[in-house]
Amino acid sequence: MGDSIVKALSGVSLKIEKGDFLVVVGPSGSGKSTLMHILSALDHPTSGKVFIDGEDTSVLDDWHLAMIRRNKIGFIFQTFNLIPTLNSVENVTIPTEPMNLDREQVDERAVSLLKIVGLGHRLFHKPQELSGGERQRVSIARALINEPEIIFADEPTGNLDSVTGKHIIELMRKLNIEEKKTFVIVTHDQSLLDFASKKVFLRDGQIIKLELNSKKGA
Ligand SMILES: Nc1ncnc2c1ncn2[C@@H]1O[C@H](COP(=O)(O)OP(=O)(O)OP(=O)(O)O)[C@@H](O)[C@H]1O
Ligand SMILES: [Mg+2]
């Protein structure tokens, strides 16, 4: 920023293991979104490395990084990021568009994912005809369409009331346990820590504490 250097993250070392339900909490500006972007290879760190499935992402070109993101990673956003003119099934299948897949099979898979997230009765609704919680369920189904290994969620409950938010985090935990998906969730909302298998506390760009949840370990 002009002459001053902002260190959004500093000295962060973190290992995410298969089956983790990792919740990162920290106040606004603590570096949560930056951490997500670095971990998911959307941004490059100025120093340090990120390994995904043992692969050093710092040596990969943009095409390989895009392939990793498409095949191994699902994303969930605070603002859902659904396309308003498309219905639920169409929104869920969007990440598969660049791929040469059998459309009928993809649609079938989208329908089954929408059923898993509890939206079997909202398959052909447009986002504006859905509640906030329902929109986030569509975006969770979309995150799963390419059968990713890991799902990154940035403030997934940030635009939802607390009861709906709890249902959404419970759904993600269920997918973690039943579908064996790894989740990394960043949030300022401390109440989401109750669901975590691993808890990371971020402050001023540094991990100040890492805790395992003995009660709910995945
Ligand atoms: N492109 C940038 N240039 C300069 N500073 C940046 C940039 N992006 C982020 N920052 C700074 O880095 C720090 C971390 O930002 P980040 O967006 O990761 O925080 P956050 O924890 O996600 O906050 P929030 O809860 O408000 O979303 C902040 O101080 C922010 O101002
Ligand atoms: Mg953020």
From TrEMBL:
Domain named ABC transporter: residues: 1-218
Cited Gene3D superfamilies: P-loop containing nucleotide triphosphate hydrolases
GO MF term (any one): transmembrane transporter activity
Gene Ontology CC terms, in alphabetical order: membrane protein complex; plasma membrane
Assigned keywords, A-Z: ATP-binding, Nucleotide-binding, Transport
Domain of life: Archaea
InterPro entries for this protein: AAA+_ATPase (IPR003593), ABC_transporter-like_ATP-bd (IPR003439), ABC_transporter-like_CS (IPR017871), ABC_transpr_LolD-like (IPR015854), MacB-like_ATP-bd (IPR017911), P-loop_NTPase (IPR027417)
Record's protein name: ABC transporter ATP-binding protein
